[in-house]
Amino acid sequence: MIITAAELIRTLPEGRLVPVDVRPEAVWREATIPGAISLNVYDYFIPESDEAGIAGMAAGARESFDRLGLGGDRIPVFFEEQTGMISPRGLWFYEFVGLKGGLVLDGGIQAWKAAGGGTASGIGLPEVIAQSNTGGFRFDRSLVASTQEVLNHADHDADVFDVRRKAEFEGTFLHPCCARPGRIPHSHFAFYEDMLKDGKYRPAAEIREIAEKAGLSPDREIITYCHRGARAATALYGLKLAGYDKVKIYVGSWHEWAGNAALPLEIGPAEEV
């Protein structure tokens, strides 16, 4: 799930691990881990979190990984400046389409350089994950929640987990692209960055304490969401490190939910959930 910079420096010469730079293309071209390829996983927005939208997301992700030759004996190590909201999303896409063994470089390229790793200019063509209409791709449906599943989460013993900033959760801040402020009713809350410290994931025990304080139980299914599904991936892997195995992402997140006036919302301080 995660790899340290020291481990990557030691094992990269073996040839099986492929650094995948998920930072902006211009930054990759300037200086990256030698041999790293560029993949934009951040700018993706799912058109609609229904079965067709989820299948199209899987097709687009799988096509990107196939074009990059990732999978099998070529195991990706996703990294950004430090562990944040992008590299875990890359790993989530990889696992969502049924590929195994992917990793996040904990601490990102800053940890790599601090451990003595060198840099080089990014070379080659960048890749981007986008929606696709191609059918027939397999994917792990257990890692993603539809809008309908979020709406009816109480019917299948699931908890909804909002990992945005408190101002977003309470509805006092609104992204310009979102139609309404607020949160999904009955959401649990903790800010995703609280699972990180100094650009790396906190120890599992500390993350578990954060989750328990938010009212989450490893015995129940958890659906994470944020603004667009990126921070939600960081929280998903934090929870998994802490022993929470039944976690999925509502990729449409608040951007999609807010855009549907028929869906309910809450504004203000958190209720007891």
UniProtKB/TrEMBL annotation:
Question: Tell me, what is one Gene Ontology molecular-function annotation carried by this entry?
Answer: transferase activity
Q: Name one Pfam family in it.
A: Rhodanese
Keyword Ribonucleoprotein on this protein?
no
Q: Which domain of life is it from?
A: Bacteria
Transmembrane regions: none
> Record keywords: Cytoplasm included?
no
Q: Which InterPro entries match?
A: Rhodanese-like_dom, Rhodanese-like_dom_sf, Thiosulfate_sulfurtransferase
Q: Where is the Rhodanese domain?
A: 13-121, 182-266
- Keywords on this record? Pyruvate, Repeat, Transferase
Tell me which Gene3D superfamilies the record gives.
Answer: Rhodanese-like domain
| The protein, known as | Thiosulfate/3-mercaptopyruvate sulfurtransferase
